[in-house]
Write a structure and sequence with these properties.
The structure is a homodimer. Helices cover about 70% and strands about 5% of the residues of chain A. Chain A is mostly helical. Chain A has 3 domains: about 1-120, MgtE N-terminal domain-like (MgtE N-terminal fold); about 130-230, Roll (CBS-domain), CATH 3.10.580.10; about 260-430, Tetracycline Repressor, domain 2. Chain A has a 3-stranded mixed beta sheet. In chain A, strands 4-5-6 form a 3-stranded mixed beta sheet. The model of chain A has no long low-confidence stretch (mean pLDDT about 90). Chains A and B meet through helix 2, helix 11, helix 12, helix 14 and helix 15 of A and helix 2, helix 11, helix 12, helix 14 and helix 15 of B.
Amino acid sequence: RDSARIADVSSMLNDMPPADVAHLIESSTPKLRHILWQLVDTEIEGEVIGELSEELQSLFLAEMDAAEVAVMTEGMADDDIADILQQLPGAVTQEVLASMDQQDRARIERVLTYSEDTAGGLMTTDAITIRARVTMDVVLRYLRRHSEIPSMTDSLIVVNSQDQYIGLLPLRTLLVSDPSASVREMMITDIDPIPANMPDTEVARLFERNDWVSAPVVDENRKLLGRITIDDVVDVIREDADHSFMSMAGLDEEQDTFAPILRTTPRRALWLGINLLTAFVAASVINLFQETIEKVVALAVLMPIVASMGGIAGTQTLTVLVRGIAVGQISRSNQGWLINRELAVGMINGFLWAAVVGVAASLWFNDWTLSLVIAIALIINLITAALTGATLPLFLNRIGIDPALAGGVILTTVTDVVGFLSFLGLATLFYAR
Amino acid sequence: RDSARIADVSSMLNDMPPADVAHLIESSTPKLRHILWQLVDTEIEGEVIGELSEELQSLFLAEMDAAEVAVMTEGMADDDIADILQQLPGAVTQEVLASMDQQDRARIERVLTYSEDTAGGLMTTDAITIRARVTMDVVLRYLRRHSEIPSMTDSLIVVNSQDQYIGLLPLRTLLVSDPSASVREMMITDIDPIPANMPDTEVARLFERNDWVSAPVVDENRKLLGRITIDDVVDVIREDADHSFMSMAGLDEEQDTFAPILRTTPRRALWLGINLLTAFVAASVINLFQETIEKVVALAVLMPIVASMGGIAGTQTLTVLVRGIAVGQISRSNQGWLINRELAVGMINGFLWAAVVGVAASLWFNDWTLSLVIAIALIINLITAALTGATLPLFLNRIGIDPALAGGVILTTVTDVVGFLSFLGLATLFYAR
């Protein structure tokens, strides 16, 4: 009975598009995903694993030996194979490469020489090249001799006898051109090929801005190495966006929603530990003012308001800056304007909410000194928040630290410390009179 | 002198690809972007505005009259025209439509009937259709009669005499097939067309999973309406990701990094106001325990630690859930597992950090009661944070509220209230003895 049902599930699974199988596995709990993976047919294993996140790829790869990996990678695109090989121990990678034929091995090794997050690591070597001197008619006949044209081929790549990139012949052009016209007459030459060492994020920006479906990749001598296709670029865009989103909560390593407890806990613990340290810093600021608080307990009631408003305002500024940096909108020429704008917004909101909180505090505690102290502290903290939120990500970015990950922790430490210090410090001054 | 320099800038600007001009305008301060927009040639205005964010589109459109809009939209893709018309006042839209020829107007009106965030609003009507009975040779000759094939055409769409969708003939197939083969033999029929009312986020998921370059859109009778292309899908993916990222900081309306002070301030003020209300709720909890704090001032020093650790842990859980919901990984069948995992992680981290904080507190204040109280409160708050962070986004999503926007505010209110309540409440009990 049970084995019949498993056979049902298995045949259902193997009738689904590989990307859907991958999505199902990613949406499954740890136990279930291992069962599902066992049920995937060997023929589509490669396609399925190519669609999984890196975290899950390495999970399943850890259970396979070199022979199994070699069988699985047969027929996979070379960029996907390279992605997989990069996650295996060096010895296993060598074994898998050794089992391939000469030509495939050379292609894969070419992709493997480039880091995963560059154009070279993103490219496939699977491209149709033509010469400039031939006619459209010759090209059409040449294509017809292929049993298949690589997927996402929107252009043929024109190269010279040294295999150097010259231009592109879009299929759209080929199909409407006079058969006797030459490639040289019809090709596009105003698209710059992508250098193999360009970071993948920059590649994604080029694709987005120019609405490309595929683009050629060249080495430093303009020799054609391969091409990048939009499907892989979409993955880069998705991963980058994901990474920024998760990093803001310190979850930069957490791609797998259904990671088991033992894998999730240490990462979360680390982040909590870092934040605990900053919380103790804030607490030690409060500690300086024990006497004042003893005298005016209302200070303890109101002090979280000053700190939290600073944190909220600063996080808004930080978020705008982090996104601006990520989409490449911020440069030296406009960052000054942006810092000034944030300062102005912080000041206006500081005065606005200082008035509101001041009035509320005086109504609540019937104490105009308290009211004045919290109003001034709030203005100081919102201006500090704007200044920190605007300059910190620019600084972190310049020294090569991810502002999405580190920015929030540092920012809230600053707004907590300045919030408590200004509020309790001013109170100590004012109530001493 | 100045006018010569402006002419230089102008010619430089109009030699750039329209998407780069748009990026330059989006990266410019308010004054400069108006000057740049003035310098853009009328011929490329349409293409440039099509690449701008909605916020900037409406900014520039507000300064144009119907005649100018009509001139600008000439030669633009119909989905881009529809996007622009949707931002104009109704009367202006009618005027622009009236100035178009019959056929164009009908096409645009068809797109306009669908909401912007559906497949219908995303599609272009610009598609090449063929019949199933013809041969490859006929198709090739038919294509050659076109002066141009629409961009992002990777497949021709096969329809019947009622204009209903039957299948797709990829150009890749056309180019390698026997010229005498019929379209019926060679076409793909296993790709379901996209219904016009499908939400754009779902369209994006289909494109991502199936690696499509373009896909046909049909009405409820399978009648072909148009097609969606990957460049517009990439925009949807980018906008969705952007929206989630910005929403977590309450910036869901802030697409424009360089918005002027007067536009930025009110939005930020609103968010600060909402958070101020929740801060007052937390403060009123502290207010209940004035007497206890007066007795043991160290409570005031340590209480932000309990609240902030809860906020940090809860935000992590919330972020994982919000992302899981956004990528469609979470369903009724696995959400129970996820809630349990988060609870377990929360508990383990609760006990771990309770021990650390407990020891630290006793060393600092030499008070074992305080140490015990903060440890228990921390455990309670981290478990509360896990439970709230996991269930709240599921609940908000079910009742149609964006969990990325509302989740954080509600969550931190809960963790603040529970943090202060458990810590100060327990302290009141323990120190009363």
